[in-house]
Design brief:
Number of strands: 9
Largest sheet: 7 strands, parallel
Number of helices: 9
Distance between the termini: 46 Å
Strand order of the largest sheet: 3-2-1-4-5-6-9
Structural class: alpha/beta
Radius of gyration: 17 Å
């Protein structure tokens, strides 16, 4: 029986990197994303390179039917998922008041409501088996007052910290992954000028996932890859709020 890992947003960025590194460790994979062609291409490459079982699940997580199908896979006791990576997400380029309400609500769903639903489904089997891992991809933005994105990530950090405390004694680790700026498609899709961010603030996706998996194995509730972002997160959590807010605003 394969040791299955289900990854949302699996065709690009951190999701694709999680797929690579988990496949390298011998995990079977369930890749979830909207684009079926990209999913099949990614799955074929992973099967060829790592000789692991790979399922594809094309699902739009803004759609109730898409979420239901992912929930059904997480509840499948015949091929149980032992690792869930809630990675799907995106940013909104405008400020809260300038965005259509529907966009903000969809944004909230993909970063908070859907990960909670998938975590709830995954926990049923994990707790029954006495083992499992859940990674909620958050952000160091969750430590700062920085729009709805930061607020949603703060909620996932808080949830993951509580859940890890609640379930670690029952064999399940729940961890929030909090990277800073990472070289992925995320910022490109937002239309962000990556040149506006200093070079030293950019991280490599492979390094981020490697650090995350190490922290996950250690049972940590929060993973902040790289010393530079550990320091920045410490400052964000301990400096005066007005100062943190001004610094966060500069990083937009």
């Amino acid at each position: 029986m394969a040791n299955w890992a289900l990854i949302t947003g699996a065709t690009a960025g951190l999701g694709a990197e999680f797929a690579e590194q988990l496949a390298q460790r011998g995990n079977g994979l369930v890749l979830v994303a909207r684009d079926s062609a990209r999913l099949e291409e990614k799955a074929a490459a992973l099967r060829s390179r790592f000789n692991v079982a790979v399922e594809v699940l094309a699902a739009d997580l803004h759609d109730d039917d898409g979420v239901r199908r992912v929930l059904d896979r997480l509840r499948d006791s015949a091929e149980p998922v032992s690792t869930l990576v809630n990675n799907a997400g995106y940013g909104l380029p405008k400020s809260f008041e300038a965005n259509p309400l529907e966009d903000e609500l969809n944004h909230a769903a993909i970063h908070l409501t859907v990960p909670l639903a998938l975590s709830h489904a995954a926990l049923q089997g994990m707790l029954a088996r006495g083992s499992g891992h859940i990674v909620n991809v958050a952000s160091v933005a969750g430590f700062t007052p920085r729009g709805t994105y930061g607020a949603l990530k703060a909620a996932m950090i808080n949830f993951s910290t509580w859940a890890n405390f609640a379930y670690t004694s029952r064999g399940v680790t729940v961890m929030a992954l909090c990277p800073g700026f990472v070289h992925t498609e995320f910022h490109q899709r937002m239309g962000m000028d990556k040149g506006s961010v200093p070079r030293w603030m950019w991280l490599n996706a492979g390094d981020v996932v490697s650090a995350a998996l190490k922290d996950l194995a250690a049972g940590k509730a929060v993973s902040i890859p790289s010393l530079r972002y550990k320091v920045l997160a410490f400052i964000a959590r301990n400096a005066p709020l007005s100062l943190v807010a001004r610094l966060a605003a500069r990083g937009r």
